[in-house]
Design brief:
Layout (H helix, E strand, L loop, with lengths): L2 H11 L12 E4 L9 E4 L4 H9 L4 E4 L17 H11 L3 E4 L2 H4 L5 H8 L3 E4 L2 E4 L2 E8 L4 H10 L13 E10 L14 E14 L3 H11 L7 E6 L2 E7 L1 E10 H11 L6 E3 L5 E11 L4 H6 L4 E5 L3 H7 L4 E4 L2 H5 L2 H15 L6 E3 L18
Parallel strand pairs: 2-3, 2-17, 3-4, 14-15, 15-16
Antiparallel strand pairs: 1-4, 5-12, 6-11, 7-9, 7-10, 8-9, 12-14, 13-16
Helix pairs in contact: 6-7
């Protein structure tokens, strides 16, 4: 299987178009035309991760955090570990792909997996994505309706939540008059023509808009197909920020803190106290998401788990919500299990015997010092 086929599979799940505009997602280094041998998954790219890939014949590395985020000024093998990584990747023909904030913002992505790890049920986005959709309308002869709508759906149009191929059509009459230079499929040039047409409309995510318009133009029988594009303020159930759900049964504050530490395998948590003694409704967001604090409070969450919380942001949540900093690495690393499961299913479904391995080491740059209490 070529790398470009796996990339399409990834991007159908986590479209690059939903990523933070200053993010750098996608293929970081390598070639889409190379054939995949085996795959290694890791949150970050370190020298040991690359060495692991080499030792296990993995020529495709999937990372959450982009390897190239800031411009590189020079490549000095003797002074810089990033430069040595680049040399090893190129020398061993290893491709690196990053799905960062697009994986954060997609359903079943980072925050959903964090919520599931903590045992939450009835999970939904804490802040669904909005203003990223369009309604596309076109007018087509009834005989060509099936062909056109199928092409639009194949290009990514018509997806609403868990439903695909969503559209609406109604019959009407269209009029047009072609010039001397026209070549009309229906009617005569220089003559006003009235014909039966179908008005077809569907919803389109912003990152699929150009593909859908191209599909309309390519598959429409008319020389000059008419189409309208309307921006929408809809919320999108498949993409958003953070997640919120409920525990099967309520827990005390200490019980919930213990559960969080155990599930995320962290020796320490930073937190500020909330107002509720029992924890039932929980908001989460993997990585740096403290700016969603008010969203969590507004939805009456008893606790909010994220990472990289500052001192004064902790103050904002004090006595309002159990506000927990569980670590950047710890709240994001949970997504790799889901990535592995999806990749393995994809390869198996395509008759490929490609191994998908998770890096067994720890790429977390943050270390903990736990002072032992002396017995008196």
């Amino acid at each position: 299987m070529l790398i470009k086929k796996l990339i399409k599979f990834i991007e159908d799940w986590a479209p690059p178009g939903i990523a933070w505009e200053r993010d750098n997602v996608g293929l970081q280094i390598g070639s889409r035309e190379d054939k995949i041998e085996n795959v290694l998954l890791s949150l970050d790219l370190t020298e040991d991760v690359v060495d692991t890939a080499i030792n296990n014949n993995c020529n495709f590395i999937f990372n959450h955090h982009p390897f190239f985020f800031f411009p590189i000024k020079n490549i000095d093998y003797s002074e810089d570990s990033k430069s040595r990584i680049i040399k090893k990747l190129i020398s061993n023909n290893i491709s690196v792909y990053s799905a960062h904030t697009n994986l954060d913002f997609t359903k079943e992505g980072v925050s959903y997996q964090l919520a599931k790890k903590l045992g939450l049920n009835n999970i939904k986005f804490l802040a669904p994505l909005d203003k990223k959709q369009f309604k596309v309308v076109t007018f087509v002869p009834e005989s060509e309706m099936q062909k056109l709508s199928s092409a639009v759906f194949k290009a990514g149009g018509g997806v609403i939540g868990e439903y695909s191929n969503c559209g609406f059509s109604i019959k009407g009459k269209g009029t047009f008059k072609g010039s001397e230079n026209s070549n009309p499929v229906v009617g005569e040039k220089n003559s006003l023509t009235e014909t039966e047409e179908i008005r077809f409309e569907t919803v389109v995510d912003a990152w699929n808009l150009n593909r859908v318009v191209s599909a309309i133009i390519k598959n429409h029988p008319y020389e000059e197909p008419a189409y309208d594009i309307y921006p929408l303020n809809n919320t999108n159930g498949n993409f958003g920020f953070g997640a919120i759900g409920v525990l099967e049964k309520s827990l005390s504050k200490n019980e919930f803190l213990t559960l969080t530490a155990v599930k995320l395998k962290t020796p320490a948590l930073r937190y500020s106290n909330g107002k509720n003694k029992r924890i039932k409704k929980v908001a989460v967001c993997g990585g740096t998401c403290a700016d969603l604090l008010n969203k969590a409070i507004a939805q009456k969450a008893d606790a909010f788990i994220t990472a990289d919380i500052t001192y004064h942001t902790f103050q904002q949540g004090e006595d309002k919500i159990l506000f927990i900093d569980a670590g950047h690495y710890e709240t994001e690393n949970v997504v790799l299990n889901e990535v592995q499961k999806r990749f393995e299913y994809f390869f198996s479904n395509n008759g490929e015997k490609i191994k998908v391995m998770k890096y067994k080491g720890n790429t977390n740059p943050v270390k903990f010092f736990i002072k032992n209490k002396r017995k008196k």
